[in-house]
Amino acid sequence: MASVALPKTSAPDAAQAPEALTLADRVFSEIQNAIVKGELKPGAKMSEAELAARYGVSRGPLREALRRLEGRKLLTRIPHVGVRVVSLSFAELIHIYQVREAMEGMAARLAAEHMSPDEVQGLKALLAMHEKQAELQEGRAYFQDEGDFDFHYRIVQGSRNEVLSQMLCGELYHRVRLYRYQFSVTEGRPQKAFGEHHRIIEAIEARDGEMAEILMRRHISSARKNIEAHFRDQFAPSPDSVAHEAAEARGKGRGDRPATNEE
Fold first, then answer.
1. DSSP readout, 7-55?
2. How much is the pTM?
3. Of 72, 77, 84, 120, which is closest to residue 1 (Cα–Cα)?
4. Dihedral over alpha carbons 15, 16, 17, 20 (to 10 degrees)
5. How many whole angstroms separate alpha carbon 217 and alpha carbon 219?
6. Bridge partners of 83?
7. Which H helix or E strand runs over 77?
8. In whole angstroms, how far apart are CA 200 and each of 153, 196, 210?
9. What is the pLDDT of residue 236?
10. Residue 67: enclosing H or E segment and its boundaries?
11. What is the mean pLDDT of residues 220-225?
């Protein structure tokens, strides 16, 4: 597979960047966001020379960033081929969403029991910040940065359950972010997901753990169904191909005899 066009970025400005932010940190963050937003497509081959030139860094910081992205399972290294963006099959993706539905539903229920009033207000403030996104207002997509800028991440942390945090905020979290954003780019889905977030917060604020769990499970189930619909539309056979297959089937039913004008 040929290397894909990379998103445009500018060279780093050391005077403007935070002192604690290393070159490897910056490149790691920029490539990760490019992967999550689909600017670097699943399965795309990563060229070190092209990446180094594009992001204005030497091979050392770039390789450190790529190793970290491999650690998050966003990149995979194939012997004799090189590094590619991770690509999940439809079945793998659906299995992940089935697990998310159960575990994040539990996290929402526990968050209703354990989150402080200040944390609930923090969730509301987070959604108010999300609402200002131009792409959300225009119905194009719903992007959430990672960690504390992510509604789902905060809910899991608010559950006060370390096992859930390890399972949902580790390797699985970063793979899920990749597909959460890309499948939010569906007509009507961004605003619908945003509204569902608001209702989950209302249940948590009311300390209604049962309702919070139900709403979170419905929210993730809705996202899973959106993915299933996307794959059905993407891989549905065209009318021409259906007609061709039907003609072939009729031919086999006649013993695969060649058609003549007499038939």
1. PP-PPP-TTTS-TT--HHHHHHHHHHHHHHTTSS-TTPEEPHHHHHHHH
2. 0.70
3. 84
4. 60
5. 5
6. 46, 77
7. strand 75-78
8. 14, 6, 11
9. 54
10. helix 59-71
11. 92
